[in-house]
Amino acid sequence: MREVVVVEAVRTPWGKRNGGLSGTHPADLSAVVLTALIERTGIDPAVIDDVIWGCVSQVGDQSSNIGRYAVLAAGWPESIPGTTVNRACGSSQQAVDFAVQAVMSGQQDVVVAGGVEAMSRVPLGAAKTGGSPYGPKARARYQDFSFNQGISAELIAQKWGLGRHRLDEFATLSHELAAAAQDRGAFDAQLVPVETDAATVTADEGVRRGTTPQTLAKLKPVFQDDGVIHAGNSSQISDGAAAVLVTTPERARALGLTPLVRYRAGAVTGADPVLMLTGPIPATEKVLRKAGLELSEIGVFEVNEAFASVPLAWLAETGADPRLLNPLGGAIALGHPLGGSGAGLLTRMVHHMRDNGIRYGLQTMCEGGGTANATIVELAD
Question: Is Cytoplasm one of the keywords UniProt gives this record (predicted)?
Answer without folding.
Answer: no
